[in-house]
Design brief:
By secondary structure, the protein is of the alpha/beta class. It has helices at about 35-45, 70-75, 75-95, 115-120, 145-155, 155-165, 170-180, 190-200, 205-220, 225-240, 240-255, and strands spanning about 10-15, 15-25, 50-55, 100-105, 110, 125, 130-135, 170, 185.
């Protein structure tokens, strides 16, 4: 594998996509703790020109979890992990609240916090060699990054208990079947496919995508009646907005829509 340029910033803009590097080969693809604060800030203060967020690792793995050697070396392990989890959680919350889709390119292992970030992505692209694992029980710890909230909502309560308590390794095909990964491509195509998808989403109807993310989030706690009311309000508001007007007009005129930015 080619060496990684560790001078590349953890957070950068690629035209209309915010690219967040959460792990590099420099620390054995462990979670890049230094990336968490600037990443959360960039997501919270998202530039209006950004239409999607891409999460990636630049080493052999998407993210192998927190750096356990750093945990062990900390004079105050509890304080160290409290601070690290706090920084991670600010990023998780910022991603959840973002008005744009979040795509993850998941090569190799997504373990611990890496798996949590995959669970929080809207669309996760993996390959045949992709593996997910909670990894927390193996070192006597409990989940962070929202895994105990996200995982049951993806795979169901019973499967989540089994995965977490047995510290299960989930191969790529099972991860797709369970809904943890959206689809598989060749291992060599993960990064390119994820980046291309992020740019495609960024070029789409951004107002509609933001509203769809809101609807999906609200559905977790709404009753059916409440969700139907929210859907009615949302589609009516979309029809009155520039994105909805352009989409309908383009369809009738049989032309490609020119989505407002």
């Amino acid at each position: 594998m080619a060496s990684v340029d560790t001078t590349e910033p953890f957070v950068r803009t690629d035209t209309d996509v915010l690219v967040v590097t959460i792990a590099t080969a420099a620390d054995g693809t462990a979670l890049a703790g230094d990336a968490l604060v600037p990443a959360a800030t960039a997501v919270r203060e998202l530039d209006p020109g950004i239409g999607a967020i891409l999460l990636r690792g630049t080493g052999a793995n998407f993210c192998a979890g927190g750096n356990v050697r750093d945990f062990a070396a900390a004079a105050d392990r509890s304080g160290y992990l409290d601070d690290l989890a706090g920084r991670l959680h600010r990023l998780v919350l910022a991603l959840r609240a973002a008005p744009v889709p979040v795509v993850a390119g998941v090569q190799g292992w997504a373990a611990g916090a890496g798996m949590s970030l995959v669970c929080g992505a809207d669309i996760a692209i993996g390959g045949p060699s992709t593996r997910l694992r909670p990894a927390y029980p193996g070192i006597g710890l409990t989940p962070d990054g929202g895994m105990s909230w996200l995982l049951p909502r993806i795979v169901g309560a019973s499967r989540a208990r089994n995965i977490l308590l047995t510290d299960a390794t989930i191969p790529a095909t099972d991860a797709v079947r369970l809904g943890l990964l959206s689809r598989l491509v060749d291992d060599t195509e993960i990064a390119g496919t994820a980046a291309e998808l992020a740019h495609t989403l960024a070029a789409g109807p951004r107002a509609a995508m933001a509203a769809i993310r809101t609807l999906l989030d609200r559905s977790a706690t709404n009753s059916l009646a409440e969700q139907l009311d929210l859907e009615r309000e949302s589609i009516a508001a979309a029809a009155a907005g520039p994105t909805g007007r352009e989409g309908v007009d383009a369809f009738v005129a049989k032309r490609r829509p020119q989505w407002p930015r």
